[in-house]
Amino acid sequence: MTVIKGENFTAKLVSTVALKPGQVFASTAAMTPSPVGKRYSTVQVSETAHVELNSDLLYMNHSCDPNVVVDVEHGVVTAAKHIQPGDPVTFFYPSTEWVMDQPFNCWCGAPNCLKHVKGAKFLDADTLSQFALSKHITRMP
């Protein structure tokens, strides 16, 4: 994996390898508990806990048509679809986040784009059912 930094403080994580669906892209072993809780640089791993990404995984961007899944239960990031070298690595932020620390307007361009990403709490069951969700998200009220 490599990070590509663009203009206006933009950056993205790009795969340097080809992967098939289900293959492990990266380990999340470097993640450490967040001392301050939810932040833009964390991933929610339970109903109450967040961890800092502490690696190039910080540069995974959101997509409403993601190509990886962040599996917080098993500590890995896996391919959700075929990935080729040079493909940006993206995941569906509400798959781990109940309420985003910094909601944002989405411009991923996917046919099913949410347009505004605030977290899983703000999405209906039909929308959420289209994505691989972390267990803690499925347990949230």
Automatic annotation (TrEMBL):
Transmembrane segments: none annotated. Residues 56-93 form the SET domain. It comes from Physocladia obscura. This is SET domain-containing protein. InterPro entries: Flavunoidine_N-MTase, SET_dom, SET_dom_sf. SUPFAM superfamilies: SET domain.
